[in-house]
Design brief:
201 residues; alpha/beta
Protein backbone atom coordinates (compact mmCIF):
# COMPACT_ATOMS: atom_id res chain seq x y z
CA UNK A 1 0.00 0.00 0.00
CA UNK A 2 1.12 3.56 -0.72
CA UNK A 3 1.88 5.70 2.32
CA UNK A 4 1.84 9.05 0.53
CA UNK A 5 -0.71 10.68 -1.77
CA UNK A 6 -0.70 9.19 -5.25
CA UNK A 7 -0.62 11.42 -8.33
CA UNK A 8 -0.77 10.89 -12.09
CA UNK A 9 2.12 12.20 -14.18
CA UNK A 10 1.15 15.00 -16.57
CA UNK A 11 2.69 17.00 -19.40
CA UNK A 12 3.04 20.67 -18.31
CA UNK A 13 0.50 20.07 -15.51
CA UNK A 14 -2.23 22.55 -14.54
CA UNK A 15 -1.73 24.94 -11.63
CA UNK A 16 -4.09 23.00 -9.35
CA UNK A 17 -1.84 19.94 -9.71
CA UNK A 18 1.03 21.84 -8.10
CA UNK A 19 -1.30 23.33 -5.49
CA UNK A 20 -2.14 19.75 -4.48
CA UNK A 21 1.55 18.78 -4.46
CA UNK A 22 2.33 21.72 -2.19
CA UNK A 23 -0.50 20.71 0.14
CA UNK A 24 1.26 17.33 0.42
CA UNK A 25 4.57 19.14 1.14
CA UNK A 26 5.85 17.75 -2.16
CA UNK A 27 5.95 14.24 -0.64
CA UNK A 28 4.06 12.05 -3.07
CA UNK A 29 3.89 8.85 -5.10
CA UNK A 30 3.61 8.82 -8.90
CA UNK A 31 1.41 6.24 -10.60
CA UNK A 32 3.60 4.35 -13.05
CA UNK A 33 1.62 1.22 -13.89
CA UNK A 34 -1.85 2.46 -14.79
CA UNK A 35 -3.22 1.75 -18.26
CA UNK A 36 -2.74 4.84 -20.38
CA UNK A 37 -6.00 6.84 -20.45
CA UNK A 38 -6.72 9.00 -23.47
CA UNK A 39 -7.94 12.61 -23.48
CA UNK A 40 -6.17 13.58 -20.25
CA UNK A 41 -3.35 15.87 -19.19
CA UNK A 42 -0.93 12.95 -19.35
CA UNK A 43 -0.08 14.04 -22.90
CA UNK A 44 -1.96 17.35 -23.13
CA UNK A 45 -1.65 20.84 -21.68
CA UNK A 46 -3.63 24.07 -21.94
CA UNK A 47 -1.96 27.46 -22.26
CA UNK A 48 -3.18 31.01 -22.78
CA UNK A 49 -3.40 32.46 -26.28
CA UNK A 50 -4.77 35.68 -27.82
CA UNK A 51 -7.99 33.77 -28.60
CA UNK A 52 -8.41 32.19 -25.18
CA UNK A 53 -7.10 28.70 -24.43
CA UNK A 54 -4.79 26.69 -26.65
CA UNK A 55 -4.31 22.93 -26.23
CA UNK A 56 -0.92 21.33 -26.82
CA UNK A 57 -0.87 17.57 -27.37
CA UNK A 58 2.12 15.23 -27.33
CA UNK A 59 1.36 12.55 -29.94
CA UNK A 60 1.92 8.95 -28.94
CA UNK A 61 2.54 5.93 -31.13
CA UNK A 62 -0.54 4.21 -32.49
CA UNK A 63 -1.28 1.15 -30.49
CA UNK A 64 -1.10 3.05 -27.20
CA UNK A 65 -4.63 2.01 -26.37
CA UNK A 66 -6.14 1.82 -22.93
CA UNK A 67 -4.50 -1.53 -22.24
CA UNK A 68 -0.96 -0.14 -22.63
CA UNK A 69 0.82 0.61 -19.33
CA UNK A 70 1.64 4.31 -19.14
CA UNK A 71 5.34 3.59 -18.54
CA UNK A 72 5.47 1.80 -21.92
CA UNK A 73 3.77 4.50 -24.02
CA UNK A 74 6.15 5.84 -26.67
CA UNK A 75 6.15 9.36 -28.07
CA UNK A 76 5.53 9.72 -31.81
CA UNK A 77 7.73 12.01 -33.87
CA UNK A 78 5.87 11.58 -37.15
CA UNK A 79 4.86 15.23 -36.85
CA UNK A 80 7.18 18.02 -35.68
CA UNK A 81 5.21 18.61 -32.49
CA UNK A 82 8.23 19.76 -30.47
CA UNK A 83 8.83 22.65 -32.85
CA UNK A 84 5.12 23.50 -32.85
CA UNK A 85 4.86 23.43 -29.05
CA UNK A 86 7.94 25.60 -28.58
CA UNK A 87 6.76 28.09 -31.20
CA UNK A 88 3.39 28.23 -29.44
CA UNK A 89 5.04 28.86 -26.06
CA UNK A 90 7.23 31.58 -27.58
CA UNK A 91 4.33 33.24 -29.41
CA UNK A 92 2.05 33.18 -26.38
CA UNK A 93 4.56 34.06 -23.66
CA UNK A 94 7.41 36.00 -25.23
CA UNK A 95 5.99 39.23 -23.78
CA UNK A 96 5.46 37.78 -20.28
CA UNK A 97 7.58 39.08 -17.42
CA UNK A 98 9.66 35.93 -16.89
CA UNK A 99 9.73 34.02 -20.18
CA UNK A 100 13.34 34.95 -20.93
CA UNK A 101 14.34 33.94 -17.40
CA UNK A 102 13.15 30.34 -17.90
CA UNK A 103 13.54 30.02 -21.66
CA UNK A 104 17.02 28.46 -21.76
CA UNK A 105 16.09 25.76 -19.26
CA UNK A 106 12.82 24.82 -20.90
CA UNK A 107 13.86 24.84 -24.55
CA UNK A 108 16.01 21.72 -24.09
CA UNK A 109 12.79 19.69 -23.63
CA UNK A 110 11.85 20.67 -27.17
CA UNK A 111 15.22 19.86 -28.71
CA UNK A 112 16.01 16.47 -27.18
CA UNK A 113 13.98 13.45 -28.25
CA UNK A 114 12.63 11.18 -25.55
CA UNK A 115 11.44 7.65 -26.28
CA UNK A 116 8.86 7.30 -23.52
CA UNK A 117 6.18 9.79 -22.49
CA UNK A 118 6.57 8.87 -18.82
CA UNK A 119 10.30 9.70 -18.81
CA UNK A 120 9.68 12.97 -20.65
CA UNK A 121 6.96 14.09 -18.26
CA UNK A 122 9.01 13.10 -15.22
CA UNK A 123 11.98 15.20 -16.30
CA UNK A 124 9.67 18.14 -16.97
CA UNK A 125 8.06 17.74 -13.53
CA UNK A 126 11.46 17.68 -11.84
CA UNK A 127 12.46 20.81 -13.76
CA UNK A 128 9.36 22.71 -12.62
CA UNK A 129 9.85 21.65 -9.01
CA UNK A 130 13.48 22.77 -9.19
CA UNK A 131 12.39 26.22 -10.38
CA UNK A 132 10.28 26.47 -7.24
CA UNK A 133 13.34 25.62 -5.13
CA UNK A 134 11.69 22.60 -3.53
CA UNK A 135 13.32 19.35 -2.45
CA UNK A 136 10.59 16.79 -3.15
CA UNK A 137 10.24 13.26 -1.86
CA UNK A 138 9.01 11.23 -4.83
CA UNK A 139 8.30 7.51 -4.93
CA UNK A 140 6.71 5.36 -7.64
CA UNK A 141 4.06 2.68 -7.60
CA UNK A 142 5.35 -0.87 -7.97
CA UNK A 143 2.11 -2.19 -9.48
CA UNK A 144 -1.35 -0.89 -10.27
CA UNK A 145 -3.82 -0.91 -7.40
CA UNK A 146 -7.37 0.24 -8.09
CA UNK A 147 -8.16 0.83 -4.43
CA UNK A 148 -5.53 2.48 -2.25
CA UNK A 149 -5.48 3.56 1.38
CA UNK A 150 -3.81 6.92 0.78
CA UNK A 151 -5.15 10.07 -0.90
CA UNK A 152 -5.77 9.31 -4.57
CA UNK A 153 -5.39 12.13 -7.12
CA UNK A 154 -5.24 9.90 -10.20
CA UNK A 155 -8.68 10.94 -11.45
CA UNK A 156 -8.94 14.36 -9.82
CA UNK A 157 -7.87 16.66 -12.67
CA UNK A 158 -10.61 16.45 -15.27
CA UNK A 159 -9.81 18.22 -18.51
CA UNK A 160 -13.43 19.18 -19.17
CA UNK A 161 -14.03 20.97 -15.87
CA UNK A 162 -10.61 22.12 -14.69
CA UNK A 163 -10.90 25.68 -15.99
CA UNK A 164 -14.19 26.10 -14.13
CA UNK A 165 -12.44 25.69 -10.78
CA UNK A 166 -12.02 29.16 -9.34
CA UNK A 167 -8.58 30.15 -8.12
CA UNK A 168 -7.14 33.51 -7.13
CA UNK A 169 -6.26 35.55 -10.18
CA UNK A 170 -2.87 36.82 -11.32
CA UNK A 171 -1.83 38.90 -14.31
CA UNK A 172 -1.93 36.90 -17.55
CA UNK A 173 -0.36 37.92 -20.85
CA UNK A 174 -3.65 38.51 -22.64
CA UNK A 175 -5.53 40.08 -19.72
CA UNK A 176 -6.36 43.04 -21.97
CA UNK A 177 -8.56 40.89 -24.20
CA UNK A 178 -9.41 37.74 -22.21
CA UNK A 179 -10.95 37.27 -18.80
CA UNK A 180 -8.73 35.50 -16.25
CA UNK A 181 -8.51 31.80 -17.13
CA UNK A 182 -7.91 29.66 -14.02
CA UNK A 183 -5.95 26.44 -13.93
CA UNK A 184 -3.92 26.75 -17.09
CA UNK A 185 -0.62 24.91 -17.39
CA UNK A 186 1.99 25.70 -14.76
CA UNK A 187 4.01 27.44 -17.52
CA UNK A 188 1.40 30.21 -17.54
CA UNK A 189 1.91 30.88 -13.84
CA UNK A 190 5.67 30.51 -14.04
CA UNK A 191 6.14 32.84 -17.00
CA UNK A 192 3.88 35.49 -15.44
CA UNK A 193 4.82 35.21 -11.75
CA UNK A 194 8.38 33.84 -11.86
CA UNK A 195 9.89 33.36 -8.37
CA UNK A 196 6.49 34.13 -6.81
CA UNK A 197 5.03 30.92 -8.27
CA UNK A 198 5.55 28.83 -5.14
CA UNK A 199 4.00 31.44 -2.83
CA UNK A 200 1.00 31.76 -5.18
CA UNK A 201 0.34 28.04 -4.78
Amino acid sequence: MQSSAIFPLFYLPPVSYFTALKAENFEFTIEKHEHFPKQTFRNRATISSPDGTLDLTVPVNKGSKNHTPYKDVKISYDAKWQRLHWLSLQTCYRSSAYFEYYEDGLVSFYEKKYDFLFDYNLELLNWFIKQMKVNPSITFTQEFEKEIASVDFRNQFDKKTIHQTQTKSYFQVFSDRNQFIPNLSIVDLLFNQGPQTKSYL
